[in-house]
Amino acid sequence: MFAQPLIDGMDFARNGRELHGEISIKSLLRLGDMLAKSDGSLAYVVRGLRVSDRYMLEVALSGVCHLRCHRCLGEIEYPVGITTRLQLVSAEKMDEIDANDDEMECIEASSQIDVLALVEDELILGLPFAPKHPEGTCSPDIEGLQQPASAFSVLANLKKKY
Question: Which residues constitute the domain of residue 149?
Answer without folding.
Answer: 6-161
